Amino acid sequence: MFHKHWCRRLWIIGLLGHAVTGCRHADLNRNPAGLRNPGEEVLVEEGESAQPSLSADGTKLVYVSGKRPLHNSPQVYVKDLRTGAERRVTFQNGIVSHPRFGPRGDQIVYSSTTDEDKEYPAFLRESGASGVLPTWLRQPTEVYVHGLNSFDIERVTTHAGYDSAAKFIRNGRSLSWTQVTRDRAAIISSNRTTHQTIELKGLDSNPTDFHLANDLTTAAWVSYDEMYAHARLMLRHAGKVTEVAADHATLKLDPSFSNDSRWLLWSEFDANTQTYTIHALDVVTKCAGAVAFEAAGSRRDPVLTPDGGTLIYTWLGFDKPRVARAKFMPKACP
């Protein structure tokens, strides 16, 4: 069975769904108590915030945040990194997750349980599912595209089950997302103009969280192949498919690419510390290693700024998750 660590359970089910017990209103230019690394800066302190992603120009940040004074459940927020202004985007009853910007920055795509909770209530769903997929990939969700300059909300999927981790690909011409049906995962792609929908092939069995780099050929995904006892991070580059960090037989999640398609980043579970650490791979030289941090805690959801100089991520330390950033310092290789 795959490792069902508390961090991922926290992410989808319990991360932002408990009763509000209080919120801090901290100066975002200062580190909160407990975050001791002077090289890290907290970008979002209020509530419990996670799953950051950047606009193409690097000026705006989108993320989910809950346990706030006006709402308990996670909602999508957008923050202008130039002015510090924050805007709430969604007002939904269900759990909202995995927001991503469109290429022009005027749309986001995200997932929500709101409609599925009404259409397929818990007592109608299959229970006791077994197999290789972890429980978070059975969360009933649908994919939505939301206009940031209008009230337009488009429901993209109507499939009963998990539809999530959606991204705009091919410069916004298509969407891709993970779909799970009866304990089988697949990557679905839909053309935004023709709405033709296909399943992407050649990705092993049970592929999830597919990322296509900006060069339109390099790609990464997390595979739950039945032949292996752990989720594998797969990379397709220069026409070849290989497993990333195959010598680390541990859970690897949250793949993302740098703007120039040179760096692949991911989160990796460390059994010794029982935390997640951020790793980076130079896809050309194959140099890979953990990104060093001084402060304790798990770090997830890594994304690089367009210039490749700054890493933005979720930092889970001591009391709650926050969105933070630090200088990107990958492992030096000979």
How would you describe this structure to a colleague?
This protein is mainly beta and 334 residues long. It has a single domain (6-24, 38-327), classed as Neuraminidase (6 Propeller). The chain is built from 2 helices and 24 strands. The chain has helices spanning 6-14, 114-119, and strands at 40-44, 48-54, 60-66, 75-80, 86-88, 96-101, 107-112, 142-147, 153-155, 162-169, 174-181, 184-191, 197-199, 207-212, 219-223, 232-237, 240-243, 252-257, 263-270, 275-282, 288-290, 298-304, 310-317, 320-327. Strands 1-24-23-22 form a 4-stranded antiparallel beta sheet, with no helix packed on it. A 4-stranded antiparallel beta sheet has the order 2-3-4-5, with no helix packed on it. It has a 4-stranded antiparallel beta sheet with strand order 6-7-8-9. It is globular and about 55 Å long.
* CATH level 1 class label: Mainly Beta
The CATH homologous superfamily: TolB, C-terminal domain
Task: Name the helicity range.
Answer: under 10%
Known CATH architecture: 6 Propeller
Strand fraction equals 35-45%
Oligomer designation? single chain
General shape: globular
Number of domains: 1
Q: In what order do the strands lie side by side in the largest sheet? A: 1-24-23-22
The third-level CATH topology is Neuraminidase
Number of helices: 2
Report the mean per-residue pLDDT as an integer.
85
Are there runs of 5+ residues with pLDDT below 50, and where? 1-37
* Helix-strand makeup class: mainly beta
